């Protein structure tokens, strides 16, 4: 009888700890949303469907809807610019390894930006015509992209601030003018 009570007491204590841990644990991250017909880029103020290439979305702790970006470089710029909010809870970017078309990457291709691998310095241009940080969930696919279009692979925390913010153009990293001569858009 004493053993049964002891086991029961231990079971209740374990359930209480699990239950307590769930209440005290970190809240679940918001899931990425799909781009809607009225989704507008934060910096450009234009509809996202008007731009090719990978996109980004950032969730802030004081908003239910994400802040949208016409390119991944603009997504990074938001995190780097001092005047932008810092209450970021989640960042998602288009996984170009799962995208079927550069022009319209399509739904269901979002990846946690902090876990992605980025091709920088390649020939592809982002949605606003700027140098792009092209995201991949799979490092092998990122390396294959480099073989086809140049550049190098870096992790989220290794994307250089000067790569994002030092383009000629505005502080969001948008380039002025067309692609350099000889740059190909495969």
Task: Characterize the structure shown.
With 186 residues, the protein is α+β, with helices and mostly antiparallel strands. The protein is built from four helices and seven strands, in the order αββαββββαβα. It has helices at 2-24, 72-80, 139-149, 161-165, and strands spanning 56-60, 67-69, 88-94, 110-112, 117-120, 134-136, 152-155. It has a four-stranded antiparallel β-sheet with strand order 2-1-3-4, covered by helices on one side. A hairpin with a 6-residue loop joins strand 1 (56-60) and strand 2 (67-69). The N and C termini lie far apart (75 Å). The model is unreliable at 6-22 and 168-186 (pLDDT under 50).
List the topology elements.
Elements: H1 2-24, E1 56-60, E2 67-69, H2 72-80, E3 88-94, E4 110-112, E5 117-120, E6 134-136, H3 139-149, E7 152-155, H4 161-165
Antiparallel strand pairs: 1-2, 1-3, 3-4, 5-6, 5-7
What is the SS-derived class? Answer: alpha+beta
Mass-distribution shape: globular
List the secondary-structure elements in sequence, H or E.
HEEHEEEEHEH
Spans of at least 5 consecutive residues whose pLDDT stays below 50 are 6-22, 168-186
Helix content: 25-40%
Q: Would you tell me the overall average pLDDT? A: 82
**How is the largest sheet built, in terms of strand order?**
2-1-3-4
Q: For the report, how would you describe the main beta sheet?
A: 4 strands, antiparallel
- Strand element count: 7
What's the helix count? 4
């Amino acid at each position: 009888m004493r053993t049964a009570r002891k086991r029961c007491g231990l079971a209740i204590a374990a359930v209480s700890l699990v239950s307590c841990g769930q209440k005290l644990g970190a809240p679940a991250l918001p899931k990425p949303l799909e781009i809607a017909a009225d989704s507008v880029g934060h910096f450009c103020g234009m509809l996202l469907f008007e731009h090719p290439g990978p996109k980004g979305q950032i969730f802030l702790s004081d908003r239910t809807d994400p802040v949208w970006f016409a390119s991944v470089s603009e997504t990074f710029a938001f995190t780097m610019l001092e005047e932008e909010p810092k209450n970021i809870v989640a960042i998602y970017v288009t996984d170009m390894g799962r995208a079927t078309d550069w022009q319209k990457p399509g739904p269901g291709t979002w990846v946690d930006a902090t876990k992605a691998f980025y091709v920088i310095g390649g020939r592809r241009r982002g949605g606003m015509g700027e140098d792009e940080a092209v995201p991949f969930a799979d490092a092998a696919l990122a390396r294959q992209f480099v073989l086809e279009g140049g550049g190098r692979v870096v992790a989220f925390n290794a994307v250089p601030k000067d790569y994002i913010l030092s383009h000629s153009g505005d502080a969001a990293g948008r380039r002025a003018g067309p692609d350099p001569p000889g740059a190909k858009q495969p």
